[in-house]
Structures are given as structure tokens and as C-alpha cells.
Specification:
Its cofactor is Mn(2+); Mg(2+). Keywords: Cytoplasm, Endonuclease, Hydrolase, Manganese, Metal-binding, Nuclease. One of its GO terms (biological process) is DNA replication, removal of RNA primer. It is found in: Cytoplasm. With 203 residues, this protein is of the alpha/beta class. It has one domain: Nucleotidyltransferase, domain 5. It is 44% helix and 15% strand. It has 8 helices and 5 strands, in the order H-E-E-H-E-H-H-E-E-H-H-H-H. Helix 2 packs across helix 5 and helix 3 packs across helix 4. The chain starts with 5 loop residues before the first helix and ends with a helix.
Length: 203
């Protein structure tokens, strides 16, 4: 069942509007940034079929991303690069990027719904929602925007650093990616603090 706007409507009934959805993509990969998106949907013009980006095909995600950009009241996308992940750890880099994404919205949110267990300190009050990208339309929209943005970036990085297959696996630790790492060693986009990369860097 697609995500709904019920959490947002409950907040609106409390006088809290605009409501932003915030989600990240890319916590697990060995390479590339963590991408965070924040989205404020137009409550009178909601795209249909919004859901957790992982449940959607690439074609459907791209189409929904276009709809979101065409109809949303505000969107921001923030990347936390591999060096920031290494410096802060993955959780710290993700939470910091979420704060930047909320602050970057052209329309200041009155409240934010955040996917996951952690609600970082933002420019507004916030609530963490476990599996929020499958529950809240605003979080689902953010997950789609973040996923499409990160996948497109990884396709560009594939051209800059050929041989790793970034366009195919988006930096995740697939057998092909691990084989390329052993053959070529890490590139500047690899996260040195992640065990498979760290092991190769130390050898």
C-alpha cells in the first residue's frame, strides 16, 4: 500500500505547517556520498503512488521525481561526501546532512518527519518515523528524490573513475565492486573507514 498523508494531516490539525519529509540514501555503500533530501509537498496537489524508493523501479522513481519537482513547495538535496563519512562516521554524517537539508529548504518548515530512529536537531521540531518512507508521503517523496539524485551522481562518478562499475551498483559492496577494489585499489570516492576498503588500504 502506498504511503499516505495522514501523519502530515495530523500535524496540520495541530497548526503545524509546512511539514517537511526528510530521508537519506546511501548509508551502506563502500563509495560515494550519503544523499539526503528534504521535501515539502503541496497538500492540495499530492503526487499519487509515492512509496519507499526501494519498492519502485528506476523508471517509476524517475517519473515520480519529476512529478515531485513539478508540484512540491520546496525541495533540497544535500550530499555528505566520503571524506565526511570517514571523519564523522556514517551516523554522524547522515544526521548532519539531514540538518543541512532541512535548513536549505526555501520554505522554512514548521515540523519535519524523518525516516528512521534518529531525529537530529533541526531548524524546526522533528519526529523520527521507523519505516517512514513507506508511511508518510513527505518522507517517501524525499526518499525518491534522494535516490534519483544519488544514482545520477554515481553514474557520473562511473565516468570519472571507470573500472569500478559505480553506475551499476551505486557503490554498494557487490562481488563485482569488491573484485574491482582488489584490482584497482580505492579511489577518492571510497570510504576509507568502511572495513572492506580499510582492509585494502592497509594491505
Amino acid at each position: 500500500m502506498p504511503a499516505t498523508f495522514e501523519l502530515e494531516r495530523d500535524l496540520i490539525a495541530q497548526g503545524l505547517w509546512p511539514v517537511a519529509g526528510v530521508d537519506e540514501v546511501g548509508r551502506g555503500p563502500l563509495a560515494g556520498p550519503v544523499c539526503v533530501a528534504a521535501v515539502i509537498l503541496d497538500r492540495d496537489n499530492l503526487p499519487q503512488g509515492l512509496d519507499d524508493s526501494k519498492k519502485l523501479t528506476a523508471k517509476r522513481r524517475a517519473a515520480l521525481a519529476e512529478e515531485i519537482y513539478a508540484s512540491a513547495l520546496a525541495i533540497s538535496v544535500v550530499m555528505a561526501p566520503a571524506a565526511e563519512v570517514d571523519a564523522l562516521n556514517i551516523r554522524g554524517a547522515t544526521l548532519k546532512a539531514m540538518a543541512r537539508a532541512a535548513a536549505a529548504l526555501a520554505l522554512p518548515p514548521a515540523f519535519a518527519l524523518i525516516d528512521g530512529r534518529d531525529a537530529p536537531k533541526l531548524v524546526c521540531p522533528a519526529r523520527a518515523v521507523i519505516h517512514g518512507d513507506a508511511i508518510s508521503m513527505s518522507i517517501a517523496a524525499a526518499s525518491i528524490v534522494a535516490k534519483v539524485a544519488r544514482d545520477r551522481l554515481m553514474a557520473r562518478l562511473d565516468r570519472i573513475y571507470p573500472g569500478y562499475g559505480f553506475a551499476g551498483h551505486a557503490g554498494y559492496g557487490t562481488p563485482a565492486h569488491l573484485a574491482a577494489l582488489r584490482q584497482h585499489g580505492p579511489c577518492p570516492e571510497h570510504r576509507r573507514s568502511f572495513a572492506p576498503v580499510r582492509a585494502l588500504s592497509a594491505s
